[in-house]
Amino acid sequence: MLEGLDLRELVARALAEDIGTGDMTAGAVITRDARGTGEIVQKRSGIVFGYEVGVEVFRQCGATRFDALEPEGEWRELVPASLVRVEGSARGLLAAERTALNFLCHLSGVATLTAHYVRAVKGTGVTILDTRKTMPGLRVLEKAAVRAGGGANHRIGLYDGILIKENHAALAGGVGAAVSRARTRQPDREIEIECGDAGQVREAVRAGAERLLLDNMDLDQLREAAAAAREEGGEGVTTEASGGVTLDNVAEVATTGVDFISVGALTHSAPALDLSMLLDAPATGEGALGEGALGEQAELAEPSEPSGSGEPG
Description:
Elements: H1 7-19, H2 24-29, E1 35-42, E2 46-47, H3 51-60, E3 63-68, E4 75-76, E5 81-89, H4 90-120, E6 127-129, H5 139-148, E7 162-164, H6 166-172, H7 175-185, E8 191-195, H8 198-207, E9 211-215, H9 219-233, E10 238-242, H10 250-253, E11 260-262, H11 265-268, E12 275-279
Parallel strand pairs: 6-11, 7-8, 8-9, 9-10, 10-11
Antiparallel strand pairs: 1-5, 1-12, 2-4, 3-5
């Protein structure tokens, strides 16, 4: 699911940013041998996503058990709902709490917003896409969250797809010249190019482009450009609307004849889904990572417990 991501390193950096030299409050208030049980609760309807990163956060903070009580990746309307139960060192659970929730709330927000867009275009045949407008270091996670919400991923980065934007075309001598140059140098790759009007669409298709990015067009312009693409290239050419798309207008955009709608807001502006964690009285016993919605058991490593200043004797 998270190919290309060093999850252990990402989580370690996030924890180091928060814990620093130690949790001063927990060190002053909680004894080293205290143990606890925590429960993560979904407080607002939506899709929860991010258990894999949540497991890693708690593992690195010394938790001994992570039980998924409800599956991730499914719309949950009835809330509040208990999602996850974790056990381990009370200090460790407190140290993990904010970082785990930061990841889970954000990724769940991305999945939930994506689901709203997907629901808005249901029945039209249009696919909702993400973009490269992601938080640095979180792209793999955010794009996985988009998939969990029912959307599809555009290219992951600059390395795995050709998308000729306005600036590329200007530097290459125009839409047709840019497509021709790309086709010569990458004959086996799909070529997508940004077009500003129906005339550029026709020029791009004649030069060999297979997908047209129709950026910041109004509805009439989108209809005209999509029709031009079909006339010039038939079923071998697809169109993608982008720019200015919101939940208020995405259904209308989907009626213009485009095949895809890309929405940067899925990742750069998704509101966090409301989740919280509450700790119960100390729990006894240790065990392996609980078998639940993750589908398997995994032994937890023995990371060093977060330290704290002002530790009681």
